[in-house]
Amino acid sequence: MSTPSPSRPAIKDPRVVPVAGTDAHLPAVPPERLTAVWLRQRFLHPPDIDPEIPGDGGVFPGRTTTQAAVLVPLVQRPAGLQVLLTQRTAHLRDHAGQVSFPGGRAEPEDGSPERTALREAQEEIGLDERHVDLIGQLPVYRTVTAYEVTPVVALVRPDFSLRLDAFEVAEAFEVPLAFLMNPAHHQRHSFEYEVPGTDGPLLGRRQFLSMPWTGPGLAVSNADPGVGLTADSPKEFFIWGATAAMLRNLYRFLQV
Fold it and tell me: Compositional bias (Basic and acidic residues) at which positions (predicted)?
């Protein structure tokens, strides 16, 4: 019997992968659940559920598992909660150019996913933990690059400033939590590819979610950490892959 290779093709431009459909048939998270008060209570008394998407579905061969954490920052704006995200720079080895939460690999001195997430957010985007109120965690997510990522969810007071690490972060932006918690905006992509097997090539299939968002970026000064945030001109940010999957797991966590 043929056995598939654990390798799979990289996706150079996810925007060109066909959209198989959306999940518009599923309900959006009700507005009354998208508040700081309700979210605190949900994380104090979390539902006993498995994540809808536990990982990317495989790991590149030869990779050693690495513990990591990301901060899921929910900014408390007057118009509602906003998710603070980053666009990674194009030259990075893993997930180059992709939209991501601030975060990264755990260091021995961290001692917990919470400390890893806070430290990485400080290093990557200059988010001072004095503005951050941790409220809970989502299930661990395993990436194809062999990171076991703990999403740490936090409420963020809006009077913060940012300073981006120019090596890792190209841009920061915010997306309304209500937009991301509406499955009508969750696109399902799918394509087939061939993988080598012992008796010849086998057909594989790769699937992923995307949540494209068009809105302003945050004009941030890397030269002056005291500069506040202002809206830049609108553009499309293509949220996909592990970040979209973790947001989908947040949707399930809030919806059940």
Answer: 106-116
Name the residue with tokens 């809970």.
Answer: 136
Is residue 31 assigned to a domain? yes
Which residue, 122, 129, 85, is CA-closest to 241? 85
Listed in sequence order, the residues at least 6 apart from 204 whose beta carbon sits closer than 8 Å to its beta carbon are 4, 8, 192, 193, 194, 195
Host H or E run for residue 252: helix 241-255
The answer to whether position 11 is within a domain reads: no
CATH number of the structural domain spanning residue 157: 3.90.79.10
Domain assignment of residue 4, yes or no: no
Query: Model confidence over 224-251: pLDDT tens digits?
Result: 444 456 666 788 899 999 999 999 999 9
pLDDT averaged per 10 residues in sequence order, the chain, 256 residues: 49 86 97 98 96 82 88 97 91 70 96 98 96 98 91 97 89 95 96 75 82 81 50 84 97 97
Domain residues for the domain of 151 are 17-255
Q: Is residue 9 part of a domain?
A: no
For residue 121, report the phi and psi dihedrals to the nearest 5 degrees: -65, -35
Tokens of 4: 């598939």
- Nearest one of 228, 237, 240 to 173, comparing CA atoms: 237
Record the pTM. Answer: 0.88
Helix residue ranges, H only, 22-168: 36-44, 113-125
The pLDDT of residue 91 is 64
Q: 119-159, pLDDT tens digit by residue?
A: 999 999 999 999 999 999 999 999 888 899 999 999 999 99
